[in-house]
Design a protein that fits this description.
It is a single chain. The chain contains 10 helices and no strands. By secondary structure, the chain is mostly helical. The radius of gyration is 27 Å and the shape is flat.
Amino acid sequence: MTGPSRPAPVWRKRTTAAEWLQWLCWAALAAFFVWCWQVMNRNTIWAFALDAPSQGAQLVARAFPPRWDYAGQLMGPLWDTINIATLGTLLGSVLSVPVAFLAASNTTPSAAFLRPLALLVIVASRSINSLIWALVLVVIFGPGLLAGILAIALRSIGFISKLIYEAIEEIDEGQVEAVRATGAGTAQLLDYAVVPQVLPTFMGVTVFRWDINIRESAILGLVGAGGIGMQLQSSLNMLAWSQVSVIFALILATVFLSEWVSAKVRHAIL
């Protein structure tokens, strides 16, 4: 005689302990949301928040029609903004090259000291917004384009270096070994085996960063770092909303143009 048949095992996606852990995580997330909501409401005046739609509508009404004759006075500051983005990107890309080679595990001369130092530079550059860089540099160098250019450059180093050093670590080592087999030295290995593989990525990333910097440089003038942002700050201080709408329109058109140029150049490179 055969014994009683065992029930067929039932497949479960998670164990009982995993399900309880999932519910605890959801409960913790809900509690965190409630706490954040209380912190947000602590200094919120809801009468102002409820009145925001009508205030926004009045602001838009004051901004139209735009004062298009003011656009002629913005060409110089707009050109300064483009120069800030371009020169800052060029300076940042030049400084990014040695940082990227020091940060890449397969090209750094010192994995114990120089590589962590380069990674620290990358993290510090990416962690601090360009507006904060500009605030500090305006205090050091004074208001003007130089502070804006340096702020864009310091912000760009982390972005470009990170993508370049990752590209360096992903190169085809077969090409490196082939060049090394000819008796090439370290400089020749970099020149003939590493740089040709990384150069398209470097150029594409640099153009992409320039596109981003066009947008970021447009607001650096709010802290005195030159460009069209200074005109925007002046118009905001005077409550000249018809001028503000013209500035916004020019910034939007410039960003659209930079997007188009960036896409065309990166398509041609890559």
